[in-house]
Design brief:
Keywords: Kinase, Signal, Transferase
Helix content: 40-55%
CATH topology of the largest domain: Rossmann fold
Shape: elongated
Low-confidence stretches: 1-18
Mean pLDDT: 93
Protein name: Histidine kinase
Distance between the termini: 72 Å
Oligomer: single chain
Radius of gyration: 25 Å
CATH architecture of the largest domain: 3-Layer(aba) Sandwich
Order of helices and strands: HEEEHEHEEHEHEHEHEHHHHHHHH
Number of strands: 10
Structural class: alpha/beta
GO molecular function: kinase activity
Organism: Flavobacterium cheongpyeongense
CATH superfamily of the largest domain: Alpha/Beta hydrolase fold, catalytic domain
Pfam families: Esterase (PF00756)
């Protein structure tokens, strides 16, 4: 039995990392090759038209597998979108320290650090975007000195990345002030995750706390910001606590509607339930670069709340959404039929159900159900003559 379990464990491991490859990028900026690890989503080869967000990992040598495992788990439950992971190797002959070199007086990349900064922005990103199918949404992550280094991309007039994951950053001089000043100027949605361990290194933790305070003072609603301090965690162990929190923070809107979202954001609405659903998926597309049709479970949640609140006219908006995402399915016509039925218009409802019966079934909606609804509406129409 143990041999069977071991076999399946090894098989799962092989499948999970079947898309993990390595590459060496010849860099003019660095004057040498730089090794990277590439993790492609399971659907990359089978869905050739699909594009993916990209997660760039500094300290990719030890952060890659930790992030990859968390993402695979989230994708399995449809809580996280598939994404491309790029891990930058920095463990050869003290590379991470050379890569993170800064001018201590000015607090910006210096010499080899400046070369590495230019390598990422001027060589690595264009290389990945040319070779792979990527969306414009990019995240960068790092730990201690590399987490601090990631923040330098915020100093540009237009930040190079849309999301930053900074795990116990050893902040450069004045960084706790400059980042907050930048956040006050942000003009489009932006994601920033910051973390530390309760038992973190004192000289690292104190500037992080100042940064947190300054960001809160800036209070820009376009900045999606979260700061976690983990109890009983050290500078190194806090990383495993942080990774799932960071990913779920950035991709919060992607998750299917759950009880917490329903209670806190939907149930409190007086109207606009269909608009809420439409906006949720528009944010996924326009901000996160993730295009997926509205999940049927999410659709059903909104339909139920519309019916419960007698907001029957909003079913027309649901029909519009359905006709965009599922143009060949009976969902849109069904919603219009349901709207007319609830508004006391059985003849018009019957017509919509008739249209729906000629289209493709979807979810719980079947041709037999449409025929039942047609008979029900026709009978009701005769009684109300």
């Amino acid at each position: 039995m143990k041999k069977v379990c071991l076999y399946f464990a090894l098989l799962i491991s092989v499948v999970a990392f079947a898309q993990k490859t390595f590459d060496n990028i010849k860099s003019e900026k660095l004057g040498t090759d730089r090794r990277i690890t590439i993790g492609l989503p399971a659907s990359y080869e089978t869905n050739p038209s699909k594009k993916y967000p990209v997660l760039y990992l500094l300290d990719g040598d030890y952060l890659f597998d930790a992030f990859s495992g968390a993402i695979n788990y989230g994708v399995y439950w449809d809580d996280l979108p598939e994404m491309i992971i790029i891990g930058i190797h920095q463990n050869h002959d003290g590379e991470r320290y050379d890569d993170s070199m800064i001018d201590q007086n000015v607090g910006v990349p210096f010499e080899k650090g400046e070369e590495f900064f230019e390598f990422i922005g001027g060589e690595l990103l264009p290389y990945i975007e040319k070779k792979y199918r990527t969306t414009p949404f990019k995240i960068i992550a790092g730990h201690d000195i590399t987490a601090s280094f990631a923040n330098f991309f915020l100093y540009k007039d237009r930040p190079l990345f849309n999301g930053y994951i900074c795990l116990s950053p050893e902040l450069a001089p004045k960084m706790e002030i400059r980042i907050a000043e930048k956040f006050a100027q942000v003009k489009e949605p932006f994601f920033y995750y910051l973390s530390a361990g309760e038992g973190d290194i004192k000289k690292i933790k104190e500037p992080i706390e100042k940064l947190d305070s300054n960001i809160k003072i800036a209070n820009n609603p376009l900045v999606n910001y979260k700061y976690d301090v983990f109890k009983n965690a050290t500078h190194y162990t806090e990383v495993l606590y942080s990774i799932p929190n960071a990913l779920y923070h950035i991709f919060e809107v992607y998750k299917p509607i759950n009880s917490a979202e329903f209670k806190d954001k939907i149930a409190v609405l007086k109207s606009g339930y269909a608009d809420y659903l439409d906006n949720k998926y528009n944010i996924m597309s326009e901000v996160l670069g993730v295009d997926i049709p509205v999940r049927m479970n999410d659709f059903k949640v909104i339909e139920d709340v519309i019916l419960k609140n007698n907001a029957y006219d909003e079913l027309a908006k649901l029909a519009e959404i359905a006709n965009v995402d599922y143009p060949l399915a009976m969902l849109g016509e069904y919603e219009l039929g349901l709207m007319h039925e609830k508004m006391g218009e059985p003849k018009r409802a019957s017509k919509r159900y008739q249209n729906a019966s000629q289209m493709q079934p979807i979810g719980e909606l079947t041709k037999d159900l449409m025929y039942e609804k047609i008979d029900e509406m026709n009978t009701l129409a005769k009684k109300t003559k």
